[in-house]
Design goal:
This protein is an all-alpha fold. The protein has 2 domains: 69 residues; 33 residues, no CATH class. It contains 6 helices and no strands. Helix 1 packs antiparallel against helix 2 and helix 1 runs parallel beside helix 3. The longest helix has 23 residues.
Length: 108
């Protein structure tokens, strides 16, 4: 693959991340955008247009631009989610197996 193809891929992925994060920031459902980005990333990795590290760095960069904080700083801890669920009486949170909650990822 050429450098131009790789550059085009990364520019397009950056735009997808920006749209995804802006939708999340606006409180909109971004599940379709997230799935599209995941598929796009998977294709890029298969075609050797990107590495996992490049994707992570790009995602972190765009997240910082949109939200003003890193992904780690914005993502609530598992303990904070548990405490919030207890305070709100949201017992549906506990219906999901603990194993799944432990490895649950954010919308980004």
């Amino acid at each position: 693959m050429s450098v131009l193809q790789q550059d085009l891929f990364l520019i397009t992925l950056e735009a997808q991340f920006r749209d995804l994060f802006q939708a999340s920031k606006a409180g909109k459902d971004n599940s379709e955008q997230r799935l599209r980005a995941q598929g796009f990333i998977h294709a890029g990795e298969l075609l050797q247009l990107c590495s996992r590290q490049q994707v992570q760095q790009l995602m972190e960069k765009v997240h910082l631009e949109v939200f003003g904080v890193s992904i780690a700083d914005r993502k609530p801890s598992a303990q904070a989610r548990r405490q919030q669920a207890l305070q709100l009486g949201d017992y549906a949170y506990f219906e999901e197996p603990a194993f799944n909650r432990l490895y649950q990822t954010s919308d980004e």
